[in-house]
Amino acid sequence: MRSCLIALMVTTAAMTPLIAQELLPGDLLNGQSVSPAAKYISVSAVSSHTRVSPGQSFHVALVMKIADGWYYYSADPGVSGDFKPQAGSIESSAGDWKVAPALWPADQRTLTDLGDRQAYFNVYKKRAVFFVPVTVPKNAAGQKTIEITPDGQICSTTGQCIPLSGFGGQGERGVLTALVTVQVGAEPIGNPQWNETFTKNLAAAMPVEKLRASHVEAPRGLSGMLPAASQMADLDLWAGLGLALLAGLSLNIMPCVLPIIPLRIYSLVKMAHESRRRYVTLGLTFAAGIVLFFVALGAVNVVLKLTASGTLDINEHFKYPAVRIAIAMVLLTLSANLFGLFNVTVPSKVASLGAGAEAKGHLSALGMGFMMAVLSTPCSFWLMAMTLGWAQLQSLWLGTLALVLIGVGMGAPHALLAAFPSLVRHLPKPGRWMELFKQTMGFLLLPAVLWLLSTLYEGSAWPFWVAGFGLVLVFGLWMWGTWVRYDAPLKKKLIVRGLAVAMVISAGAWMLPQPAPPLVKFEPFDLGRIVQARKDGQIVLVKVTAAWCTSCKELDWTVFNTHAAAEAFKKYNVATITADVTNTRNAASRWLAKTFGGAPPMAIIYPADGGEPFVKVGMFSMDDLVKWLDRAGRGR
Fold first, then answer.
1. How far apart (Å, rounded) are the C-alpha atoms in residues 577 and 525?
2. Inter-residue contact 173 to 32 (CB < 8 Å)
3. Distance of CA 572 to CAs 1, 507, 517, 607, Å?
């Protein structure tokens, strides 16, 4: 019996270095109780070698697993006003073996709810691997147990924080420690658990000094002006869902969508001559296509939340030139179709199959609804931004439901038209006007094409305004020669042609003059300029904009390019800088992604005292800007 017990002990000792040991909740370490944080976080250690030779250096990986909804603060978490999280740290012990400071993986900037405000901090989520370099003494023998203890705190997304140590009564220090034992021998033996992933993670890990240096470009805290999300945090359930429906309804009157809606009306006119059942089903299918797009957005939101703890930006796809070009070409194709340059015909064999033709028609209606929803995204003004902000602060299912309700709101008017076919009787009877109407809608699509193509050009937009006037001129000539026949009454000719002339003259007066120099000169993005201005004690305002951002243009007209703004910037000695993120690969886009994230419109204000920046996402007024500049000038 005794020999069996000894054999069991020897076998266990031999297996020890092969196993990554993890301290579980409820365990004791040298008489010390485990931190209650162990309910939400676990640690284990994996050595790069199971056997090491005297004088050898090797690494031990500390694998930290963090429960969903919780995060561990980085060694350089950042600060926000009077709130400074407890920085993370890694303590290691290996007796007389030399242990170097731990190497840290890159952290993540995460928006954190502080109750009265929100701030960005540097944290780790889900899983993080830290590395401890160990050197074996030249006279080492036997085996050695290495202890690695992370310190700091973990916090939940709801605001609850738990220290990893320092809890309990007098003289009691809670700990969460991982242990690993390695043997000393003549020849080193690698650990089979040390796979390629550990090797890649080790190559990317860095000393804590380098981790801090990586945050130089990224402000350590972000507080003050709240983004749209936090502004909507106080909305109750029904108000938030109602806002989602209202935002969807409003998309039907946005300038990116209005040129498409007449196409839908025109299709209703054509369908009115068919069966009531087909009219209803095609109309409902069109509305379903709109909802389908927002269901897809909801699915993207779920993936981002579950895999990357990210948030959804409905304008994200417009950052890519290929997307803008593709949408412009689709609109150009639709315009050509409306001009009668080509027609989409159904093959006779398909047309003879009633069910097949009907299916094709419904699929076309579904795609048309989906495309109209896609075209609404660059015109998602403040109401949409507020809705998305509220949705991001809700639970996963509720935030996803809000996104779907936006689609329901946008599709509701079209479903209503389909549900009541009698409304079609109020439309004018078919005639020559229908062909003129169709061609007019073709002209109305072309400005959207021109605008999308203008976003690819980083210089002055004036050449595109001149091209836009050329389009208006052609439209006016078409009105003059086509809208009235040669035998039309003189009064009708005077009205139609007078309108055409007035439209061309008005457009020329508005679109042809070369734009005057802006009242406020914004310098192009330069990180060195920002750093120098802050060293000089200036307030720095960074305007984040993009050519495809229609809300940014509205902010320029109403706030930034006004006499009031020019006077305020002069009064407070503000260095004004533009971060144009039209293209994803430029320096401004990389800086924004690395620091704050998000999408324009956005204003970032660095206070004169070198404190943490204020960030405003979305629309704001001139009064708001003056208030923030005054606050930044006073350093609070």
1. 6
2. yes
3. 87, 39, 22, 10
Alpha-carbon distances of 433 from 378, 428, 484, 485, rounded to whole Å:
31, 9, 11, 12
Report if pTM > 0.70: no
Residue 143's nearest CA partner among 50, 61, 56, 63 is 50
| 169, amino acid identity | G
Sign of CA dihedral 261, 263, 264, 268: positive
DSSP for 136-164, written as a single string = --TT--SEEEEEEEEESEEEETTS-EEES
**Alpha helices (H) in 52-152, listed in sequence order:** none
Q: Is 389 exposed, middle or buried (0-12, 13-18, 19+ CB in 10 A)?
A: buried
Which of 127-141, 220-234, 249-263, 581-595 is least confident? Answer: 220-234
CA 136 to CA 57: how far, in whole Å? Answer: 6
H or E element in which residue 505 lies: helix 490-511
| CATH fold of the domain at 18-223 | Immunoglobulin-like (2.60.40)
Classify 133 as helix, strand or coil: strand
335: which 2 tokens?
């315009």
Cβ count near 554 (within 10 Å): 14
Q: Residue 231 and residue 620: Cα distance in Å, rounded?
A: 12
* pLDDT one-digit tens code per residue, 113-172: 665 555 678 899 999 999 999 999 999 999 999 999 998 888 887 777 888 875 443 333
Torsion of CA 555, 601, 298, 449, to 10 degrees: 70
Tell me the CB-side half-sphere exposure of residue 131, using CA atoms within 13 A.
21
Domain 523-634 -> CATH class: alpha beta
Closest residue by Cα to residue 471 from 453, 457, 492, 458: 453
Token representation of residue 620:
């704001």
Q: Which tokens in the block code for residue 318?
A: 């417009």
Nearest-angstrom CA–CA distance, 90 and 205: 14
Domain map (residue ranges) of the chain: 18-223, 229-428, 523-634
